[in-house]
């Protein structure tokens, strides 16, 4: 299995504050990866490290087999659509395509022009006059038409209304199907990720909490409800993500590879949103104690 | 990348070209008449310049002095800070251009344009003003016009405006890169460029070429002198060395050593009320001269104009290159 993104002990510090630390990741190629976490968790930092906009303070990161932004060849392999999808306000839509054509070695001009036509953008319009959704589409077009192996999108739909959001995601998925590219996109909304991604990375408090195939995650997490009890009583192979107790009842979110047989528990399956929320709700210091348990068995 | 840079830059370039062309046309129309006047009048031209030409003389001076500052503020400072503000640098950096090349092309295109604009402006103004400059250097007595070596005129003649523009441009780029916001970067560029333009003539330019030194007697019928600072300082005027730029003055005592003006001079000039009479001043100056006091004047002669021009051009281009290196380092290491 080839990894499109591989990080070892990756960390980035701004002055005194670590924006991301102890990040170990191995993301398989050909996936649509959703990076979720609250605002300020380190999602943007991880993505910028992956496209080479930032250089790591600690550890290493390898993308498509090379150091990010190491040279023109590496730049051609990785596309990046930055947060708020910036475009040159003074340049027209056609100018942007011209710009991509002149700058990107693998530029697919026919595809770019075709996309612009399908999206109904006027090539003569100045990019500064486009709506938020159109601007995002233009930035996406630049990212796709350069024909990267990996396309990274940082909160691409955060500023869009629900309809534009859905259109953008649909369009992105069509491009994935057509060009077999890998995608890593970040969002603070789990619903965006659930609809489009098949792999998820949860980042909270500058740490990667969990990473894995969404189906595996959903199949491996349960909510257990039962009479109040001590958590030490759990069998091996069941890892507690969160626990809450009332006087008489204990509710656990656990990750496990095997079925839960204890008849005193009521076992409920969990959706992706609940799983992500459970990881987000986990106390920050729990991460380091349970590090080995974080690797999701596939 | 050159295409993109040009595409982003062409409006500014067009505005500047139009302004330079308009100025050049105006000067081209009025210039020949001034040259004719110099052919007939020689150095006494300085008394015959029409008031409209005099306005043009000062306008040209101001324009050449302002062009580098304007270029630094409006071309240099926003060049990168605006991209960082709007995030469009991400677009270029992820479209197959390394950031070093991106910077190199932007700096290269901008610096060439800046030097061309400043060079053409200076060429036009220097050509137009050359009859007046020659008249002043040839001994035309005037308080109205500057000698070419005077700090005000020096920066508006010859080749130095090109180097000033290159420096101001790269300074603006570097400040924009560090400050990352357009307006503060523009303000900082103007402030820093002005500071350098004031510091160089005061501390550096006097030493860029070998200065001449002369000692003039202090006497009523000698070189004209001014008495300053409550008669504690004497300044001699070198009327027989036209076009010179006096860089320092020193009073010498009878032994030829640097000395302060003696207090007896101030005592001699003291009056009950009002300023001393001319006869009194002449008598005091004669007394001071009789004590053996002389005035030593260090100056750059008019003939040093071009060696000073080239030396200062080299200095500013060197500064611009150093700033370019700083930008290249900063964009690779510090910009995120």
Automatic annotation (TrEMBL), chain A:
GO molecular function term, any single one = ATP binding
The residues covered by the ABC transporter domain are 5-230
InterPro entries tied to this protein: AAA+_ATPase, ABC_transporter-like_ATP-bd, ABC_Transporter_VariousFunc, P-loop_NTPase
Q: Which Pfam families match?
A: ABC_tran
Q: Which UniProt keywords apply?
A: ATP-binding, Nucleotide-binding, Transport
Task: Please give the Gene3D superfamilies that the UniProt record associates with this protein.
Answer: P-loop containing nucleotide triphosphate hydrolases
Q: What is this protein called?
A: ABC transporter ATP-binding protein
Domain of life of the organism encoding this protein: Bacteria
Keyword flag Repressor: no
Automatic annotation (TrEMBL), chain B:
Transmembrane annotation, as ranges = 56-81, 102-128, 154-178, 185-204, 313-331
Q: What is this protein called?
A: Transporter
Keywords from the named record? Membrane, Transmembrane, Transmembrane helix
Q: What is the lineage of its organism?
A: Bacteria, Bacillati, Actinomycetota, Actinomycetes, Kitasatosporales
């Amino acid at each position: 299995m080839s990894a499109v993104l591989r990080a070892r002990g990756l960390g980035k510090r701004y002055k005194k504050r670590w924006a991301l630390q102890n990040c170990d990741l191995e993301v398989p190629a050909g996936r649509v990866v959703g990076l979720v976490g609250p605002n300020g968790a380190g999602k943007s930092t991880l993505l910028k490290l992956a496209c080479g906009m930032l250089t790591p303070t600690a550890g290493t990161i390898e993308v498509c087999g090379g150091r990010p932004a190491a040279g023109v060849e590496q730049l051609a392999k990785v596309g990046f659509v930055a947060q708020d999808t910036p475009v040159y306000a003074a340049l027209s839509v056609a100018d942007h395509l011209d710009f991509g054509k002149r700058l990107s070695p693998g530029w697919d001009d026919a595809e770019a022009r075709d996309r612009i036509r399908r999206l109904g953008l006027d090539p003569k319009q100045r990019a500064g006059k486009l709506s938020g959704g159109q601007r995002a589409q233009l930035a996406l077009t630049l990212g796709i038409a350069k024909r990267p192996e990996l396309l990274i999108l940082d909160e691409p739909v955060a500023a869009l209304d629900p309809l534009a959001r859905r259109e953008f995601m649909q369009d992105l998925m069509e491009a994935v199907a057509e060009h077999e590219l890998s995608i890593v996109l970040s969002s603070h909304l789990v619903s965006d990720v659930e609809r489009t991604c098949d792999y998820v990375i949860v980042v909270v408090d500058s740490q990667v909490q969990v990473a894995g195939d969404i189906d595996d995650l959903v199949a491996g997490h349960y909510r257990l409800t039962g009479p109040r009890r001590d958590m030490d009583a759990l069998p091996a192979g069941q890892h507690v993500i969160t626990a809450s107790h009332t006087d008489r009842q204990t509710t656990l979110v656990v990750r496990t590879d095997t079925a839960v047989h204890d008849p005193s528990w009521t076992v409920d399956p969990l959706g992706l949103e609940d799983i992500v929320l459970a990881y987000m709700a986990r106390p920050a210091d729990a991460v380091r104690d349970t590090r080995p348990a974080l690797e999701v068995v596939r | 990348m050159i295409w993109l840079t040009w595409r982003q830059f062409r409006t500014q370039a067009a505005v500047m070209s139009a302004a330079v062309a308009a100025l050049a046309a105006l000067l081209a129309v009025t210039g020949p008449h001034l040259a004719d006047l110099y052919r007939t009048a020689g150095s006494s031209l300085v008394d015959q310049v029409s008031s409209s030409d005099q306005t043009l003389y000062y306008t040209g001076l101001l324009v050449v002095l302002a062009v580098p500052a304007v270029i630094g503020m409006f071309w240099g400072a926003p060049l990168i800070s605006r991209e960082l503000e709007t995030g469009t640098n991400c677009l270029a950096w992820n479209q197959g251009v390394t950031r070093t090349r991106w910077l190199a092309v932007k700096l290269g295109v901008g610096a060439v344009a800046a030097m061309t604009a400043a060079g053409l402006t200076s060429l036009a103004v220097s050509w137009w003003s050359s009859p007046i400059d020659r008249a002043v250097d040839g001994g035309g007595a005037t308080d109205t016009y500057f000698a070419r070596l005077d700090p005000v005129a020096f920066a508006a003649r010859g080749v130095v405006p090109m180097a000033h523009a290159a420096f101001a441009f790269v300074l603006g780029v570097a400040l924009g890169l560090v400050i990352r916001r357009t307006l503060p970067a523009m303000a900082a560029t103007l402030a820093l460029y002005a500071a350098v333009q004031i510091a160089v003539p005061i501390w550096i330019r006097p030493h860029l070429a070998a200065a001449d030194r002369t000692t003039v007697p202090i006497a009523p019928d000698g070189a004209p002198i001014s008495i300053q600072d409550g008669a504690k300082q004497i300044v001699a005027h070198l009327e027989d060395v036209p076009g010179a730029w006096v860089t320092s003055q020193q009073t010498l005592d009878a032994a030829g050593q640097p000395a302060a003006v003696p207090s007896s001079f101030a005592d001699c000039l003291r009056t009950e009320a009002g300023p001393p009479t001319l006869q009194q001043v002449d008598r005091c100056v004669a007394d001071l001269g009789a004590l053996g006091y002389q005035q030593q004047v260090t100056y750059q002669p008019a003939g040093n104009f071009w060696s000073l021009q080239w030396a200062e051009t080299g200095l500013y281009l060197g500064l611009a290159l150093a700033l370019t290196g700083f930008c290249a380092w900063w964009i690779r290491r510090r910009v995120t």
